[in-house]
Amino acid sequence: MKRLLFTLALAFSTSIIATAVQAAEVKNIVIVHGALADGSGWRKATEILERRGFNVTIVQEPITSLADDVAATNRVLDLQDGYSLLVGHSYSGMVISEAGKRPDVAGLVYVAAFQPEKGESLLDLAGSKPPAGNSIKQTRDGKFLYLDPAAFAQDFAADLPGEDAAFLAKSQVFAAKNAFAAKVGEPAWKTKKSWSIVATQDRSINPELERDMAKRAGSQVTEIDASHAVFMSQPEKVAAVIEEAARQSAK
């Protein structure tokens, strides 16, 4: 009888452990695109990750305000089954730093992105170490910002084929000025594991600023020789970082 009870207890414990391990797996990747380019640029990286067994969803946020973009991200996170890894490019480092505080977010990946401290805005950070590019312009009403199409290729996507960079310039998503001025609360990277990709040829965010923010956050850093559009020009390398982050988040 004792042996039977021991065997049943062992089987029950093993089942609980197996269930816990399975529940901790991170199979959902939620990607939040940055300002000036929409989520379609993540297609190649998405296809790579899906081939490796991940469920990938892209948040098409409106970039009308930081609060609106966090809400858009939360709506997509609500659709996921289980834990998610949250990925943000550029401006959307601000977004995932807010939305990533949810208990169902297992980790954060910053891709050539801003990693704010509490009370900082994108404008605060960008002004602390200005980038090499200086081609941001205002719309006539003064409410939105965009990148001068003539400088788009050089400052955003210098390592993409010319026709691709030209199309990005024509299809860019304007960003509300108040989204860039909004200050974040306590950032998620203080309580969640984080990874950071530094684009060493970035002319939209100073690579030194990317390094400084990642160091402050204690992020695991990968440097890739690429422009700000690293997610498009180096999708294999970016996907590899995301995959490893998902694996490590599951531990």
UniProtKB/TrEMBL annotation:
Signal peptide start and end residues: 1-23
Residue stretches making up the AB hydrolase-1 domain: 29-241
Pfam families tied to this protein: Abhydrolase_6 (PF12697)
InterPro entries with a match to the protein in the record: AB_hydrolase_1, AB_hydrolase_fold, Sec-Metab_Biosynth_Hydrolase
Gene3D superfamilies: alpha/beta hydrolase
Alphabetical UniProt keywords: Signal
Protein name: Pimeloyl-ACP methyl ester carboxylesterase
